[in-house]
Amino acid sequence: MRLALVITFLLTTGSVPVHADLDRQVLWIALQTCVLAKKTTGRTFPCLAVDLGSSERAGTAVLRAPGQPTHIVVMPTERVVGLEAPELQHESGNAYWRAALAARHFVTDALKGATPSEDVGLAVNSEGGRSQDQLHIHLDCAKPSVRAALRVYAPSIHGSWAPMPIALQGSRFFAMRIRAADVESFNPFAALARLPGRRPDLVQTSFGVISTPADDPETGLFLLAYRAPDAHAEMLLDHSCSTVAKAAAR
Q1: Domains of the chain as residue ranges with CATH
Q2: Which of 106, 115, 158, 205 is in the most buried spot, having the most CB atoms within 10 Å?
Q3: What's the pTM?
Q4: Which tens digits make up the pLDDT trace of 198-225?
């Protein structure tokens, strides 16, 4: 019971740093429970899904934040501290990216199909902006205000990093476009190493992913990133999915 309460607190306050080392390992402990359950019984509880992977393929697990039906996290089954981990610059980074994209249906399923997977955003927080030292990719509805801003500025976002002309949720992001044809082979962790500005500091970097507008002539995804000691692109997501929930209730 105490573990469940701690997990609830940590996952629902993911952008607030927790400095006690043990508290920063709770997600890792929960993950080990999921992996053990999968290996011994074939079940995945408390996770929604567990892929143990193989010697050639990275394993992943999917967990729902307690009390937040649409807030999903995707994580490696191996120990990966965060987006600054060097191994993410290679194939494993792409593998976790694909797993996160594939898990978007858990968000839309919770909403009973009231929104398409294209309305689901992704986010990974920096070391100072996260509460857990196990890589976890947040999935949830993108905030309507963020989508509206990106719709306006979509024509100026291309295939390489450029600063957004306006702040999103109070922070100045760099943005780049990922064409639909390139999404599966893309590695966002490697793209962060090419972020403009001072020498790359992935420890203080955070990124979010939002789909291009449905009527955009070059469909795909927008990758958004910024640097700050407590960078948390999770602020681009709406964990209440308020707009969708209101629409579904009508």
Answers
A1: 2-249 (3.30.428.30)
A2: 205
A3: 0.89
A4: 767 899 999 999 999 989 999 999 999 9
